[in-house]
Amino acid sequence: MPCMKWDANGNLMIGFLVLFMMPFSAGFTDSRDGIFLTLKSIVTRRVSVLEKFVMVLTSVLFMDVFSPVFAINRLYAALGSPPLQGWVQAGGDPCAEAWQGVQCVISNITQLILNGANLRGELGTDLDSFTSMIEIDLTDNHISGSIPSNLPSTIKTLYLSGNQFTGSIPSSLSILSQL
User: Fold this and answer.
1) Which three-class secondary structure state does DSSP give residue 65?
2) Closest Cα to residue 64, out of 100, 105, 32?
3) How far apart are CA 79 and CA 120, in angstroms?
4) CB 91 within 8 A of CB 69
5) Is 24 left (phi over 0), alpha (psi -120 to 50) or beta?
6) Degrees to nearest 5, angle at CA 130 with 127 and 135
7) Dihedral sign from CA coordinates of 148, 149, 152, 156
8) What is the b/e burial string over 53-72, where b = at least 16 CB atoms within 10 angstroms of the residue's CB?
9) Distinct helix (H) and strand (E) counts, the chain
10) Phi-psi bin for 25: left (phi > 0), alpha (psi -120 to 50), beta?
11) Residues of the chain whose pLDDT is less than 50?
12) Residue 1: CB partners within 8 Å, gap ≥ 6?
């Protein structure tokens, strides 16, 4: 009988070990997407309290200010918060929530196409935070100020005609090998 009790307890113990070592779900997250997906990953997988704290703290202090979500929020504010479907001033998920003019591959913002959207304001200084951006089309708007010198290094297509930009074309555009 003691041997049978050990087998049952041993099997139960092994079952619990397998259960607790196995993640509850597996999902694709991209560290470039900032705090939203970091918080999502905390919810969808088992992590310790200390690990949760470190992940959130890291996201808030470091990743969030470099994330595409933060950059698109800042762009929205620099453009004067125009009436664009889905766009918000803080947070959100431009890919999952299908923000107007935003195209994504999985959870990476790859295109910003807002031609003729009656946009005003400026482009701001955070465009280089779009680490997966391939195309920007902002033709036929009323965007003013200067063309930013810090465009994403991944940019292949840039349409800015029909706006009210001032100043010269930044020399930094010449180092963008894919443009």
Assistant:
1) helix
2) 32
3) 5
4) yes
5) alpha
6) 85
7) positive
8) eebeeebeeebbeebbbbbb
9) 4, 7
10) beta
11) 4, 18-19, 21-45, 56, 59-65
12) none
What pLDDT is attached to residue 173?
A: 87
Cα separation, 117 vs 70, in Å, equals 21
Tokens of 172: 């930094």
Six-digit token string for 19: 């259960």
Residue with tokens 């997988």: 45
0.70 exceeded by the pTM? no
In whole angstroms, what is the distance from residue 171 CA to residue 126 CA?
18
